[in-house]
Specification:
alpha/beta, Protein-Tyrosine Phosphatase, Chain A, 2 domains
Length: about 400
């Protein structure tokens, strides 16, 4: 069982640093050195960018690895080739191989380091043409930051999250994320706050990195449906919802242009096909529950909550929010960003994680938005969804990707 192999490693927690992962990969004959990569960091948008890139490159005929986190339902989601998750049996076998390579006399690798090593092994074993690698946390000291010569690095966005580990200012967080930049390797930079942008640009300059800034270069080419976009002279379908996808898709297209300049064969048709086929679960996504449409989104930090609220505002309907959050999140700012007078709020715990107490969130919400029509707490998600059912009202499930994953797992 995959869970049985990985769960014991949870006790080592999040422990940033490269020494353990480098020691582990060395014991496994350094599979990360056998795989060309695109390395993707950022507060939000990393997963969407990875999804766009892997879909376009697959459509162009390449064998494409993709490593992302967290998963929504199953560990296998994190490690894919051409959008197909690794088979459970294969992941289990690789984890056993890694387990055997761990030296019991030195500090144990963390759970994230082990699953990261598993991705490298799987991609090297299958001789992928390229791997799209998403940073787990930060960048500079993240377990994915073990390649000296990526094809492209991308920083999608920077806002205040994980400040407990990355630093208490936007500039400090930007410094950590800019730690993935490598000497002379091209970097694509999304729409960043000015103080973050300056840190990244300075780092790129010092390392002689060719720099592409996409801010202001993307737009909708179809203003009626908002389902087509344009970056510079390239037009493409935009299947993922929310205005933030202009930034995310432009980051992906800019990276594709860099690959084209390096001699990769990626046609406009591959871009069109790849973009149109992109899927990324749990981010501004419509689904159904008990034959009723509901909107789901992680919205686990303020910037993501703002993107969700902006999309919800385009629908012009009253909202029933079904929400749960982890203790580590900025509850006050997320609630301020999402809630409006007349909304209803149904609060639940996030199962099997360090969940904020629904009662405490309710008290906070009452102070932040006293004109809410209703605030209720529930012991579990599905009781809350039942209470939120209303033909005239939009139901939105959000607040944590783990809560969204729980929803999918129990569907």
């Amino acid at each position: 069982m995959i869970e049985n192999l990985l769960k014991p490693l949870q006790r080592f927690g999040v422990h940033l640093g490269l020494e353990r992962i480098e020691t582990l990969l060395n014991a496994l004959d350094n599979p990360q050195q056998q795989v060309p990569i695109i390395h993707v960091a950022g507060t939000n948008g990393k997963g969407s960018v990875c999804a766009y890139l892997s879909s376009i490159l697959s459509a162009a005929g390449y064998k494409v690895g993709r490593y992302t986190s967290p998963h929504l339902v199953n560990w296998t989601e994190r490690i894919c080739i051409n959008q197909e998750p690794i088979a459970s049996e294969e992941l289990e076998a690789i984890l056993k191989q890694i387990q055997a390579a761990i030296d019991p006399n030195i500090e144990s690798p963390t759970q994230f380091e082990v699953i990261t090593a598993a991705a490298w092994l799987y991609f090297a074993k299958n001789k992928v043409d390229i791997a799209i690698i998403e940073v787990g946390l930060g960048g500079r000291l993240d377990a994915t930051n073990v390649c000296s010569d990526p094809l492209v690095t991308i920083i999608t966005s920077i806002s205040r999250e994980h400040w407990q580990r990355l630093g208490d200012t936007i500039a400090k967080i930007a410094y950590e994320k800019a730690g993935i930049l490598k000497s002379n390797c091209p970097v694509v930079v999304g729409n960043l706050p000015s103080e973050a942008n300056q840190v990244v640009v300075d780092r790129a300059t010092s390392l002689n990195c060719p720099l592409v800034e996409i801010a202001g270069k993307s737009s909708y080419s179809d203003l009626k449906s908002l389902q087509r976009a344009k970056y510079e002279e390239i037009e493409y379908p935009l299947p993922l919802l929310g205005e933030v996808q202009l930034n995310n898709s432009a980051c992906a297209i800019a990276a594709i242009q860099i690959l084209q300049q390096k001699g990769w064969k990626i046609s406009q048709n591959a871009i069109e096909t790849g973009m149109s086929q992109t899927k990324w679960l749990g981010r501004v996504q419509w689904t159904t529950w008990q034959d009723r449409p509901i909107l789901i989104d992680g919205a686990h930090n303020t910037a993501a909550a703002s993107c969700l609220r902006n999309y919800v505002d385009t629908l012009d309907r009253p909202v029933n929010w079904v929400m749960g959050m982890l203790t580590t999140k900025d509850h006050s700012e997320i609630l301020q960003t999402l809630l409006r007078n007349g909304d209803r709020l149904f609060l639940v715990p996030v199962p099997e994680h360090s969940s904020a107490a629904p009662e405490e969130l309710a008290a906070l919400a009452t102070n932040i938005c006293p004109q809410l029509t209703e605030i209720k707490t529930f012991p579990d998600l599905f009781t809350a969804l039942e209470a939120a059912k209303d033909k005239e009202t939009l139901t939105v499930l959000c607040g944590s990707l783990y809560l969204v994953g729980y929803f999918f797992a129990k569907q």
